[in-house]
């Protein structure tokens, strides 16, 4: 009778040989080319992909605040209403995240900026490039935002004007047309906060409370009976409650002042008094996770997604500390986002589907 030990030994030898053969095969040029073709086939947008089911959806393309985290990009939410795509805020690293998902940049109609802090606008240059070269964009990229957005887009155009010319000279008008290079800034009028109202889609801005940054906006999307709100940066505010009433999903920023206080103690202990001062300053214009849960409850929001996390948790200890007390306020129907957290709201149902884009 063959012993179990001997069977295991033989199986290990076979597995090792298979692994060696595989490793050897990857050194063959035609195998390398075949493997690369497989990878690029799945990471290039497929123009012939079948239409998805009609839905309103939103994916977190940047879940962190300016506090660094190598696994996350700064503020960004990709919103899809049927076939129409919009991006709310484009913080550092967010366009790389969208590229990683093979996002069809030709379908992005506009960028909506909640306010003009750097962690919400710094990837505008990459967003412009991603929606311009090869994308047949019919016009300059519309960018909605607070008054001052014209200065921001003009600044990016000045900084990247040489690049536009170089790419046009190299690739020509068919791939990189200069006539649509640049931005179409659309400063929001506080007396006309509905910025899109076309057929089944309505997008509204509303004023939030992020002093001394005035104005700062949140955005609400309504599409065929489904709805979502994105807070941008704000204190706990009545405006957030009023504009989120009954929505399916609320994406709300979250900052743990309790963790910041620990960071202040650590900074002072290391004589980093200016850093401690900064951590004190930012406590005046954000919302704690518990407060965000209260907002969601008071507004009757069906599902709450925490994003723009300060700090974003790099491990379960920080996550648990960040969320301490939330369950007592709102036992369920909330999600702590990562980059890739996606909520899908199918039209004609009350389902709220959660998954992760990768
Ligand atoms: Zn911010
Ligand atoms: Zn801000």
How would you portray this structure in words?
- By secondary structure, the chain is an alpha/beta fold.
- The protein has one domain (53-356): Ribonuclease Z/Hydroxyacylglutathione hydrolase-like (Metallo-beta-lactamase, Chain A, 4-Layer Sandwich).
- 37% of the residues lie in helices and 24% in strands.
- It contains twelve helices and 15 strands.
- The strands form two sheets. Strands 6-5-4-3-2-1-14-15 form an eight-stranded mixed β-sheet.
- Strand 10 (226-230), helix 7 and strand 11 (249-255) form a beta-alpha-beta unit.
- Helix 8 (257-269) packs antiparallel against helix 9 (273-281).
- The relative contact order is 0.12.
- The mean pLDDT is 94.
- One zinc ion binds at residues 115, 117, 210, 213, 233.
Name a few traits of the molecule.
binds zinc ion; 8-stranded mixed sheet; alpha/beta; 7-stranded mixed sheet; 358 residues; Metallo-beta-lactamase, Chain A
Radius of gyration: 24 Å
Largest sheet: 8 strands, mixed
Query: What fraction, in percent, of the residue positions are helical?
Result: 25-40%
Order of helices and strands: HHEEEHEHHEHEEEEEHEHHHEHHEEE
Helix/strand/pairing class, anyone?
A: alpha/beta
* CATH fold call: Metallo-beta-lactamase, Chain A
Low-confidence stretches: none
How many structural domains? 1
Enumerate the distinct ligands: zinc ion
Quote the distance from N terminus to C terminus: 49 Å
């Amino acid at each position: 009778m063959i012993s179990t030990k001997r069977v295991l030994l033989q199986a290990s030898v076979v597995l090792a040989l298979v692994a060696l053969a595989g490793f050897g095969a990857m050194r063959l040029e035609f195998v390398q080319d075949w493997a690369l073709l497989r990878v690029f086939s799945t990471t290039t947008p497929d123009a012939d992909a079948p239409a998805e089911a009609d839905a309103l959806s939103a994916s977190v393309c940047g879940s962190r605040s300016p506090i660094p985290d190598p696994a996350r990009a700064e503020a960004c939410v990709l919103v899809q209403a049927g076939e129409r795509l919009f991006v709310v805020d484009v913080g550092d690293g967010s366009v790389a995240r969208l590229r990683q998902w093979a996002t069809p940049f030709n379908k992005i109609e506009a960028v909506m900026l909640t306010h003009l802090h750097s962690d919400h606008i710094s990837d505008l240059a990459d967003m412009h490039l991603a929606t311009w070269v090869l994308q047949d964009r019919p016009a300059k990229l519309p960018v909605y935002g607070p008054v001052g957005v014209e200065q921001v887009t003009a600044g990016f155009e000045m900084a990247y004007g040489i690049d536009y010319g170089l790419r046009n000279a190299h690739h020509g008008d068919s791939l990189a047309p200069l006539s649509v290079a640049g931005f179409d800034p659309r400063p929001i009028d506080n007396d006309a906060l509905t910025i899109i109202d076309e057929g089944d889609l309505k997008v509204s801005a509303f004023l939030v409370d992020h002093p001394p940054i005035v104005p700062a906006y949140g955005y609400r999307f309504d599409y065929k009976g489904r709805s979502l709100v994105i807070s941008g940066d704000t204190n706990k505010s009545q405006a957030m409650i009023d504009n989120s009433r009954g929505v399916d999903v609320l994406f709300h920023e979250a900052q743990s002042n309790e963790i910041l206080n620990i960071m202040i103690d650590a900074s002072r202990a290391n004589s980093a008094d200016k850093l401690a001062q900064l951590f004190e300053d930012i406590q005046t214009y954000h919302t704690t996770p518990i407060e965000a849960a209260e907002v969601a409850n008071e507004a009757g929001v069906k599902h709450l997604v925490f994003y723009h996390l300060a700090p974003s948790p790099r491990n379960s200890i920080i996550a648990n500390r960040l969320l301490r007390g939330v369950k007592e306020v709102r036992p369920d129907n909330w999600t702590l986002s990562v980059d890739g957290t996606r909520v899908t709201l199918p039209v004609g149902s009350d389902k709220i589907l959660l998954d992760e884009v990768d």
